Amino acid sequence: MSLALAAPDDLLLRQAVIETCLKMNALGINQGSSGNVSARCDGGFLITPSGLAYEAMRPDQIVFMDLEGGYRGDFLPSSEWRMHHDLYRARPEAGAVIHTHSTHATALSCLRQDIPPFHYMIAVAGGSTLRCADYALFGTQELSQAMMAALEDRQACLLGNHGMICCAPGLDKALWLAGEIEALCHQYVIARQMEDPVILTEAQMDAVLARFQTYGKQADELSLEALAKLGMPIAR
Question: Please, are residues 101 and 163 in contact by the beta-carbon 8 Å criterion?
């Protein structure tokens, strides 16, 4: 779903935040109400409230926050609102943020290690590694600062002894990215159980990242030159 500066009271956008939460749990990338979801809107962002079960959540309970850290309404925003707030202030291209405690991403975050390029899809995070942020107490500005450092030139990272977080232009893409990060972490866990995986070289990842500049785009978004470089067929 596109999130192009809807009004803070936009019912469809509020419902989309709730539906994203429900999909997140249905996909198995979050448990209960442990994660949180937000979407940019005119003047700030809409974020899930603190401690409410997604299944019973109503659109009027989704909290509007401005970019100065204030909120409006009868419900408190998620305790992790600072991470969302700081991402929206720093990333004009971010239209949605998802934070989850997905099983394998959380397990690997407890090792506090960056995930190396064992698979080329690690590039979905925006670089040649999936970084892990330093640990900080949940809900604090220190955690948000650690996250922002790990997200430099990235769209996703692990949070030390905590979980993962990602941002994207819209809710659909953010949910997809959160699922991809959990799948990669699951694959890395399995590979490590068998043997140390072979890590792609810097040159190989440079080539992957160059190709990812056009990853997921359709023909009407690409030039003929770009299509040729990708080895794609030309429409007749």
Answer: yes
Task: Say whether pTM exceeds 0.85.
Answer: yes
Q: What's 199's DSSP letter?
A: P
Q: Which residues pair with 133 in a beta bridge?
A: 159
**Radius of gyration of the chain, Cα coordinates, nearest whole angstrom:** 18
Enumerate the active-site residues.
80
Q: Dihedral sign, CA of 156, 38, 138, 23?
A: negative
CB 78 within 8 A of CB 50: yes
Edge to edge, the sheet with strand 63-66 lists 71-72, 63-66, 44-47, 36-41, 96-100, 163-168, 156-159, 132-133
Q: How far apart are CA 88 and CA 18, in angstroms?
A: 19
How many residues are present in the chain?
236
At 3 the three-state DSSP class reads coil
Class level of CATH domain 11-216:
alpha beta
**What would the 3-class secondary structure string for 113-159 be?**
CCECCCCHHHHHHCCCCECEECCCCCCCHHHHHHHHHHCCCCCEEEE
Domain ranges within the chain, ordered by starting residue: 11-216
167-221 tens-digit pLDDT: 999 999 999 999 999 999 999 999 999 999 999 999 999 999 998 887 655 445 4
**Residue showing tokens 């978004």:** 221
Q: Which amino acid, 82? A: R
